[in-house]
Structure formats: C-alpha cells, structure tokens
Amino acid sequence: MQAERLTFDIKPNANPMPEADRLKAFENLGFGTLFSDHMAVIRWSADKGWHSPEVLARGPFAIDPASSVLHYAQEIFEGMKAYRRADGRAVLFRPEENARRFNESARRMAMPELPEADFLDAVEQLVRIDAKWIPQGEGSLYLRPFMFASETFLGVRPSKEYIFCVIASPVGPYFKGGAKAVKIWVSENYTRAAAGGTGAAKCGGNYAASLIAQAEASAQGCDQVVFLDAAEHRWVEELGGMNVFFVMNDGSITTPPLGGTILPGITRNSLIALAREEGLTVNEQPYSFEQWKADATSGKLVEAFACGTAAVVAGIGTVKFNGGEFKIGNGETGAATSKLREALVGIQRGVSNDRHGWVRVIDGV
Ligand SMILES: *Cc1c(COP(=O)(O)O)cnc(C)c1O
User: Fold this and answer.
1) What whole-number distance in Å separates Cα of residue 58 and Cα of residue 351?
2) Does the pLDDT of residue 251 top 70, yes or no?
C-alpha cells in the first residue's frame, strides 16, 4: 500500500550528553547500559498505515496501561551494529537481512510489515545523527529496532496501532572476560520453541520464556543456556540468543538446521558461507546431546562455539548438565573458531576484502 517513501522529521536533541561525559562513559562500556542522544520513531495505524516518521531526543513513551503489548506481548525486535572503520567510515553489516527478517517476524506475530527501505532509512538516520556515539577501536554502536502493539484495547486480536522505534547503545565486549571460552548449561527442564511456535521469530516473548532457564544456568555457574528440542528433548537447538556450531576433528562443521524452531541468525549464515569458502564442509544437520557428549569424550568433537551479532563468536569451553559436565578440547577457544571469528570481524571492520558486498557504508558520516 505504502508506495511513497517516508521522510523523517529531524528534531535534534536540545540537551545532548556533553562530550566529556560521553568520552568518560566510553572508557568502561558494558552491554546495553548506555544510550545515545536520539531515537527514530514511526507510527502505524490501521487507517493511516505508516506515518509520522521522526528522529528526536531519546525519551520515554507515554502509553496507556491497556496498551496491548503490556498484556499480550505483541512485540518484535532486531539487533545490529554500526562500526567505525579505521578509514573513518561508519558501516553496517548486512542490514538488508535485518530488515527482511524483521518483516518475517512481523508476519508471524500478525503485525504490519515495514517497507525494507524505511527500516534501513530509520536505522541510517539514527546512526547519522548519533555518529559520534560509535566507539572507536573494538567497540561498536549496537542498534535495536523494535515494534510493539500500542492500541488501547484488552480484546484478544492483533492490535490496530503500532510503534516502530530504533534506539542505539555504544557497546564493548558482550561477555565480561573477553575472548575466554564460555561455560554453558544444558536445559533439560525448559524448552525455547516448539514446531508451529515462534522460535524463528525475533520476538520478546521468546526471551521472556528463556529467562528462567538462563537464571538456572547462572545459578549453575554457567554463562549461557543451550536448549534442546521441545518434542524429544534430544536435539541441540540453540542458546537463548545465539546459534551454535560444532567443529569435528576432520575439520568439518555441524550446526543445527533451520526448521522453524531456531532463529535464522545472520551471523550463522555468514559463518557458514565463510567456512565453505575456507574449504570446510558445513553440515546443517540435527546433532543430539548424547552425540555431543560422546564426541567430546572420544575427541571427535574438538571445538564448539556460539554466535550472534551481540557476542559475534564465543568459544564454548565447558558444558554442564544435570548429572555432570564435560570439556570441549582443552576448554579454551579453539583455532578454527578464532579463524572464523577473525574472518568475519575482518570484513565487518574493513580489514579484509568484502567480496560478498555485505558491508553498507553510511553516507554523510
Ligand atoms: C538474534 C538471535 C540470534 C542471532 O542472530 P544474528 O542475526 O546472528 O544476530 C540467535 N538466536 C536467537 C534466539 C536470537 O534472538
């Protein structure tokens, strides 16, 4: 319906954070605790479609207590990063994939689709106005586009009003302790997604359902939780917010196949392509927890890692479950894992040739 491209009304923040304060905050970046000066917002209603696009000072929304998102969790999001390259350019990594996946999530959650060009424009407008918020060096500006149901209505049906918004947060490394391999907890009590459910959609509800398992992982002294399939509690699926890969001693790589219960990660997709280019065999096939244990013990499995935009690539050193734990390799991040991580980061940072055209330079920054 929306043939016309949206034109953002730009209203610069009258009280941006003073530069000295920002640079001070940059010295100790965590993940998702500090936010930039602006946000991009677009509204949707059943009668007007997408309207009122603006970039304005970041601040609270006034929403009615009966806003449907607060009751029925009709909400989706994306996660992407803007990087400051050594040549000074600000770049995004495969943002078109985020725009496309956002609409796949929207369809699953009975929400309106946002034209990809408008999604990208909102993200780029925000990066442009908050370009000084992109940290130099290893940090990046994490971008969080999201959409929620904002109609004041308690009946159960798709909302007739939505707010789309993009906020930005300068980030350092996702895991404290840097490149150290993580310890993960295998959840045998809780599952993340079932066939026909919302596992392939990036919706807040999936995360809400995973938090108790993540809390169990923390209580077990682990960094992250890994979920098994809901039907048989047998097949390894993914972590709460990251896909998982296994590296075998013949150099081949296995990762669970996308089948509706796993989030189709852009990092996952990129690493599969890079590994194949390195001449490695990548098998997208089911891998059971029993096999995982057996292969780690026999030495057939030499490395495992988790991946996603936030953490990029994180080696898995130890796996703990109800009844024991085992190490993978020597318990450190392995060589194949590091090599893949470097290949990906090299493209994102402009150090290696972007032969796939994955990097999008933001003009005017
Ligand atoms: C976002 C997400 C990922 C990783 O996706 P990327 O596109 O690589 O950032 C993996 N699993 C889940 C559940 C996620 O929400």
Assistant:
1) 33
2) yes
Parent domain of 202: 182-348
Nearest-CA residue for ligand 1 atom 10 is 242
Q: How confident is the model over 305-337, as pLDDT tens digits? A: 999 999 999 999 999 999 999 999 999 999 999
Q: Which of 108, 143, 171 is the last residue of a domain?
A: 171
- Vertex 91: Cα angle to 172 and 343 (nearest 5): 70
Cα gap 132→19, rounded to integer Å: 9
Q: Are residues 103 and 54 both part of a single domain?
A: yes
Nearest ligand 1 atom to the CA of 270 is: 8
Nearest to 204 by CA among 156, 250, 149, 252: 149
Give this prediction's pTM: 0.96
Q: Are residues 243 and 293 in the same domain?
A: yes
User: How many domains, the chain?
Assistant: 2
Q: Is 308 in the pocket of ligand 1 (CB under 6 A)?
A: yes
